[in-house]
Amino acid sequence: MAAEYRALTEREAAALLAGMMTEKVDVVSHASPDADTLGCALALTAIINENGGDAAVVCSDRVPDYLCFLAEGVEISDALRDGARRVAVDIASPPQLGRFVDAAGTFSLMLDHHGRGETFADNVVEPGAAACGEVVFRVAEILGADYGVKIPACVYSYIYAAISGDTGSFRFANTTAETHRIAARLHEAGADTVRIAHNLHAVKTLGELAALRLGLTNMKLLHGGRLAMTSATLGEMAENGIKDGDFSEADEMRSVLGVYIGVSLRESEPGVWRASTRANVDIDCAAVCAGFGGGGHRGAAGCTLRGFDRAGAEAAMEKSFGRAIEEFEAGI
Ligand SMILES: [Mn+2]
User: Cα(113) to centroid of ligand 1, in Å?
Assistant: First the structure.
């Protein structure tokens, strides 16, 4: 993609969005949606619809069960609409558009907080923001203050959920004093903080609990206990009633005392492994995952390994993260 896209200030993005308040707008979430991308899309959509526009949340993939509470009463479209302006939220690069990847060049605006990526529209990208929700919050504030845009009450819960999701309930290293200030403002504005925390961080399905049991059974401690890794084959997940998306045990792996890096591998189709990685120390998971065509954040990143059996996928992860751990311990 040769096109040059402009980096916008939040004020410029707000001006652009102010001009969309009575238009047809698709607000697009990334594939495999999480609370941040969905909360941001729901927030912008609610604002535009409140002010006379015709906005829709669009996502390549269906909303996972644990997020349905957030989208309650809102129809999530699985197709881009003809003639709609397009805004991407929490999407760093075209592949994260999922089935809409070929439409990347048709977007009017990107709001994002990922440091690494390939912009595909004029954009606000703030790597310092814990969640895209922080960017949307500030843009919404400008819309309200400078453009007289009405902000419906539900928006505060949507944005709170976005931030709560990406910060792991304000526990991750991306959480800043500003994150807490924004959360306080959202709380004061009526965000449903208790319901959001419970649904995002406490509720588990039976499938997820079965995944936890399998993840602990298959756990290996490597590199002197610094690397904890687990994996699940398609067969194991089927036997245990675990749906594909349910096996995601990287956080459990990194919860082991003394562990620097947690890695979870799940087979998504024969020979294809989705790796999810988490760091407890300053090791750049995104850089390691980029070596496999993946990405994410320093402390939490992912990638896809193709053409491996379980042992091969585990060995590839062990080698790359083993090297990163050795460099970290050597102070490189
Ligand atoms: Mn995000």
Answer: 6
